[in-house]
Amino acid sequence: MANNMTDTITKPDTNNDSTSPQQNGNTAGQSWFERPIPGIKQQLTAQLTAVETEPSTKCSSCHSIITNTALIFNCYVCPHCDHHLPMSARERLNWLLDQVEGELGQEFTAKDPLKFVDSKPYPNRMAEAQTKTGESEALIVLYGKLRNLDVVTCAFDFRFMGGSMGSVVGDRFVQAAEKALADRVPLVCFAASGGARMQEGLLSLMQMARTAAAIERLRIAGVPYIVILTNPVYGGVTASLAMLGDIHLAEPKAMIGFAGKRVIEQTVRETLEEPFQRAEFLLEHGVVDEVVHRHQMIDTIYRLLAKLCSVPNVDV
Ligand SMILES: [Zn+2]
């Protein structure tokens, strides 16, 4: 009896002591606002860490945050608003080519003949751009295969001093054109540039004539040259190699022109409306042959080249 009595007295006490903190979520000794709310609070912290750890990019059009993995899988097109985000030159060429066989023009390096200094010396600016992009110049030339076609391709990297055309860009473009001419394979160029590079003065302006002469040699030999105008293309690049293609494609809403909107407005003393210098506006006015969504770009380039190179059994 005595044992039973102690059991019945002590058992409820021990049970209460041991079970109450577990069942009530350790509320003993805590005020009401310190009590954890398991479902909500844990979920919130989990979401925050996922966003913090995954590298992501903000869409410049709709401002939504997109993970870089999702962007790469979607060819740098925003999945929310279809805005075409910029691609680096190397990414673009690796995306276009099924097989890369080699690169041209790596031996050329920029000189500083004018000893040009603006807010900083030209060699310092070059070194900064090289560190930022991992590239040695603003134009990348790769050759290889697009499906069953041999092609020479080049692309401007706008992150490298605004994709500006200096003497090395001219050297590389001419070398690409000479390779296309020697092998009699098409040349494809993705243009994205602010124009000629002011730090090289007249030398950069001379590249307009050099590249135009190289394209003329392709035209005489009947070697196809296709230009894809991406956002933005301006200045000396528009005035030379970007407007001398056999076919001009453009990405949606790309800004394409010679002088910028503000300069023209100041010159003609008129306000220019929004579609001005957009790819769609230029398509209506016959400057561009077709505005192509990035998801259809590779297929469109291939079909055009196959037609120009008379490849049989390709539906154009
Ligand atoms: Zn967007």
Automatic annotation (TrEMBL):
Pathway: Lipid metabolism; malonyl-CoA biosynthesis; malonyl-CoA from acetyl-CoA: step 1/1. InterPro entries: AcCoA_carboxyl_beta, Acetyl_CoA_COase_Trfase_b_su, ClpP/crotonase-like_dom_sf, COA_CT_N. PROSITE patterns: COA_CT_NTER. A zinc finger (C4-type) spans 59-81. Pfam families: Carboxyl_trans. Its EC number is 2.1.3.15. Residues 1-33 are annotated as: Disordered. Keywords: ATP-binding, Cytoplasm, Fatty acid biosynthesis, Fatty acid metabolism, Ligase, Lipid biosynthesis, Lipid metabolism, Metal-binding, Nucleotide-binding, Transferase, Zinc, Zinc-finger. GO terms for molecular function: acetyl-CoA carboxylase activity. PANTHER family: ACETYL-COENZYME A CARBOXYLASE CARBOXYL TRANSFERASE SUBUNIT BETA, CHLOROPLASTIC (PTHR42995:SF5). This is Acetyl-coenzyme A carboxylase carboxyl transferase subunit beta. The lineage of its organism: Bacteria, Pseudomonadati, Pseudomonadota, Gammaproteobacteria, Moraxellales.
